[in-house]
């Protein structure tokens, strides 16, 4: 695959007062794959996303297609088509699902199209409602949605801005098993035409939905490849054995569905 339209991170470095949080990380993500960034607590995953989205200053290079993102303002990075979610969903709780989507879509509208938009539901909003499974909840105040539905609304709020890349920080944290499955399937649908990069601690979720994985450890890339490759990497096993506790280790080493797993009791590996 060419790198046109891909997200390419090269030698990314982020320091906080001399502390190297990300020390020369390179990876790429293409439309058509669900790309995962995993690693123990403090590995530098969120900092990578912060640097890509302009929230933290970094050196090296982050390119979306031909466009360099490092040194670009947060607002311009959004306008260039990079959306992100945070660990806690940030929706307007008093407003309905539709109103939340309308506001998110408004961020990208001209004043004229804002006036036009008032006359009906825009196609981008309709398709975000459908894609996220929230069509029947359009009038529901966001505050009374389930935890999973709030996360999907936040994803919908990115989709209405028609992003080229979606970066998701721990999207399934706190979700039920059914919500995790629905979220994995949603991400796979979204990834058919867009770049999807997921930071996640849930190893079972990663094993089920990742196309490719990059493992970070102490601000550097420890391993990279398909799920099976990364699971078989002794360096990865050592880091998870050494730092992340038995649950994550067992989940990390478990083999994908259909084969005999090393444990059948672990479905949600936690990083802490
Ligand atoms: N604003 C900041 N100032 C100082 N240090 C920071 C800052 N943000 C992150 N760090 C440090 O950088 C390192 C990487 O943090 P980061 O949040 O990127 O890790 P992470 O892999 O996302 O971890 P977690 O899974 O716990 O969210 C940590 O040691 C963290 O304490």
Describe this structure in words.
- It is a single chain.
- The protein has 272 residues and is of the alpha/beta class.
- It has a domain at 1-62 and 180-272: Rossmann fold (3-Layer(aba) Sandwich), CATH 3.40.50.300.
- Helix content is 37%, strand content 22%.
- It has eleven helices and ten strands.
- The strands form two sheets. A six-stranded mixed β-sheet has the order 6-7-8-3-9-10, with helices on both faces. It has a four-stranded antiparallel β-sheet with strand order 2-1-4-5, with helices on one face.
- The longest helix is centred in the C-terminal third of the chain and has 15 residues, at 177-191.
- It is globular.
- The protein binds adenosine-5'-triphosphate (ATP).
Task: Tell me the layout of helices and strands.
Blueprint: E1 7-16, E2 19-29, E3 34-38, H1 45-52, E4 59-64, E5 67-68, H2 74-79, E6 82-85, H3 97-106, H4 111-117, H5 123-132, H6 147-159, E7 165-169, H7 177-191, E8 195-199, H8 203-209, E9 212-217, E10 220-225, H9 227-232, H10 234-243, H11 245-253
Parallel strand pairs: 3-8, 3-9, 6-7, 7-8
Antiparallel strand pairs: 1-2, 1-4, 4-5, 9-10
Helix pairs in contact: 3-5, 3-6, 5-6, 10-11
Bound molecules: adenosine-5'-triphosphate.
Adenosine-5'-triphosphate (ATP) is lined by residues 16, 19, 21, 39, 41-47, 271.
């Amino acid at each position: 695959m060419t790198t046109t339209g891909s997200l390419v991170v090269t030698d990314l470095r982020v320091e906080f007062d001399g502390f190297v949080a990300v020390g020369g990380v390179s990876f790429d993500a293409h439309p058509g794959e669900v790309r995962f960034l995993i690693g123990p607590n403090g590995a530098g995953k969120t900092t990578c996303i912060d640097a890509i989205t302009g929230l933290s200053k970094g050196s090296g290079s982050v390119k979306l297609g031909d466009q360099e993102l490092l040194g670009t303002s947060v607002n311009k990075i959004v306008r260039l088509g990079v959306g992100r979610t945070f660990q806690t969903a940030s929706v307007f709780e008093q407003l309905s699902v539709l109103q939340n989507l309308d506001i998110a879509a408004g961020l990208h509208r001209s004043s004229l199209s804002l006036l036009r938009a008032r006359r009906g539901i825009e196609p981008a909003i309709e398709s975000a409602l459908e894609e996220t499974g929230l069509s029947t909840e359009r009038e529901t105040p966001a505050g009374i949605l389930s935890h999973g539905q709030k996360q999907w609304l936040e994803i919908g709020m990115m989709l209405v801005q028609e992003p080229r890349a979606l970066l998701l920080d721990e999207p399934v944290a706190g979700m039920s098993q059914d919500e995790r499955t629905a979220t994995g399937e949603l991400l796979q649908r979204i990834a058919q035409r867009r770049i999807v990069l997921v930071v996640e601690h849930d190893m079972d979720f990663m094993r089920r939905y990742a196309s490719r994985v990059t493992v970070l450890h102490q601000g550097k890339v420890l391993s990279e490849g398909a799920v099976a490759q990364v699971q078989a990497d002794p360096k990865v096993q050592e880091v998870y054995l050494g730092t992340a506790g038995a649950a994550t280790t067992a989940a990390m080493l478990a083999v994908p569905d259909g084969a005999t797993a090393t444990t059948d009791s672990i479905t949600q590996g936690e990083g802490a």
